[in-house]
Specification:
This protein is of the alpha/beta class. Helices cover 31% and strands 20% of the residues. It has 12 helices and 20 strands. The strands form 5 sheets. It has a 10-stranded mixed sheet with strand order 9-7-5-2-10-1-11-15-19-20, with helices on both faces. Strands 14, 16, 17 and 18 form a 4-stranded mixed sheet that branches. Strands 3-4 form a two-stranded antiparallel sheet. α3 crosses α4. The protein is globular and about 65 Å long. The structure holds inosinic acid.
């Protein structure tokens, strides 16, 4: 299968019935509603593989009125018969993972032979969380606004080549040796900062108990992934966070610590680059961001309106999200770096009551007009957005089943988003449930 072959969205087979691999990414600053789109696409995929991030992510899915919040497990787990895998690029807090498994099982979700955990994924430990918290505290007003889940310090250990991996959990002696060294070193840092040191015994016991419960799921993930591909399975690669939180392409240092962009699917799972058949970029009909860092189209009025509707509170930390107008300078860059073929626009209904809706089409720095997001954070903070204004449709859109059912003004707005971003509009989400989804 090669790129460029016409593909129907919602279909994971081409016209020759060959299986397709799809990478799904967030095209903004995260929280684009990826969980729901993954759930919709998974109907026709065979397998879902998560490739980066950790339990900093929160994917919310509503099915028949029931709410499911997933942090580490691919959202595909909610569909019976789908194979789900946590790839090597993810950082895994095993205690949090077990709690998630337990909670989902209580909701009737099967997590047995349909779930696999890569033995080369790195582990998150309590010292990572404490370091995350202390680093943020010491940064004061320059803090990143992390989720305090220990994600940065865990990836830091991985890159520093001192991390402990999922597979290490299965070798008790080696695990104890590695953990003792890490805790001794990190306790010295924590003590210097005035924080309480960790008990090696307590952490070791807790993780060893978790290891036994996780043992049945732990696999060499790359050969299994390739076995699936050889068997003609169609695979959905699930990204977490969003393009502008990418460690390389985001608004550094106000980013997360992994590659959230499409390339992360290859390094985070063992998917060969030439086997990516399609990239789906998920974007809200407006923009949101949690945590600190530049946000060119931020707008207090739209934030107040969305919060008053009970929308835009973080799934992981409950923090109110910062909100603003749709930024096509950002999504154009996102299209570039991810190679987005198809767009899924979510939360269109969030704009149902707005009279005049704006899209940012360029940035202005003094007299200079920019059509690409600058890398210099000071310049990014300084620029002002150039807006194009659209008439609001001021009609509820949630009941629409087809693109034609949407108000004409909403259609114009969506077409503008697709054209300015430079990709095909393929999905529009107009509500939280599976049924509130339009395939264009
Ligand atoms: P960390 O990933 O916890 O280190 O947080 C780094 C930055 O990424 C902060 O601005 C967080 O708010 C943001 N972030 C991390 N995970 C998510 C997510 O799932 N959605 C939106 N923002 C996130």
């Amino acid at each position: 299968m090669t790129r460029g072959t016409p593909v129907l969205l919602g279909r994971f087979r081409n016209e020759n019935h060959m299986a397709l691999n799809t990478v799904l990414v967030g095209a903004q600053w995260g929280d684009e509603g990826k969980g729901k789109i993954i759930d919709v696409l998974t109907e026709e995929a065979d397998c879902v593989v998560r490739y980066q991030g950790g339990n900093n992510a929160g994917h919310t899915v509503f099915i028949n009125g029931a709410k499911y919040v997933l942090h580490l497990i691919p959202s595909g787990i909610l569909r019976p018969g789908k194979m789900c895998m946590i790839g090597n690029g993810v950082v895994v807090d095993p205690i949090s993972l077990l709690k998630e498994i337990e909670d989902l099982r209580k909701q009737g979700v099967t997590i047995e032979a349909n779930f696999f955990l890569s033995e080369t994924a790195h582990l998150v430990f309590p010292y990572h969380r404490l370091l995350d918290e202390w680093r943020e505290h010491h940064k004061g007003k320059h803090k990143i606004g992390t989720t305090k889940r220990g994600i940065g310090p865990a990836y830091g250990d991985k890159v520093e080549r001192t991390g402990i991996r999922v597979g290490d959990l299965l070798n008790a002696k080696l695990f104890e040796f590695k953990l003792r060294n890490k805790i001794t070193l990190n306790n010295a840092i924590l003590k210097a900062w005035g924080a309480k040191p960790l008990s090696f015994r307590k952490v070791c016991d807790e993780y060893s108990t978790a290891a036994e419960k996780l043992r049945p799921f732990i696999v060499a993930s790359v050969p299994l992934l390739h076995q699936w591909m050889k068997a003609g399975k169609s695979i959905l690669f699930e990204g977490a966070q969003g393009t502008f939180l990418d460690i390389d392409y985001g608004t550094y240092p106000y980013v997360t610590s992994s590659n959230t962009t499409a390339g992360g699917a290859c390094t985070g799972t063992g998917l060969p680059p030439h086997r990516v058949d399609r990239v789906v970029g998920v974007m809200k009909a407006y923009t949101t961001r949690v945590g600190e860092g530049p946000f060119p189209t931020e707008n207090a009025e739209i934030a107040d309106m969305l919060h008053a509707m009970g929308r835009e509170f973080g799934a992981t930390t409950g923090r109110p999200r910062r909100c603003g107008w749709f930024d096509s300078v950002a999504t154009r860059f996102s299209q570039m770096v991810n190679g987005i073929d198809d767009i899924a626009v979510t939360n269109l209904d969030g704009l149902d009551t707005v009279a005049k809706i704006k899209i940012c089409v360029a940035y202005k720095d003094g007299r200079k007009e920019l059509d690409c997001m600058p890398n210099d954070l000071e310049q990014l903070r300084r620029i002002t957005p150039v807006y194009k204004e659209f008439e609001g449709w001021r009609t509820p859109t949630t009941a629409a089943k087809t693109f034609g059912d949407l108000p004409k003004k909403a259609q114009v707005y969506l077409k503008a988003i697709a054209e300015l971003t430079g990709a095909n509009l393929k999905i529009v989400s107009v509500g939280a449930g599976r049924e509130a989804t339009i395939v264009v």
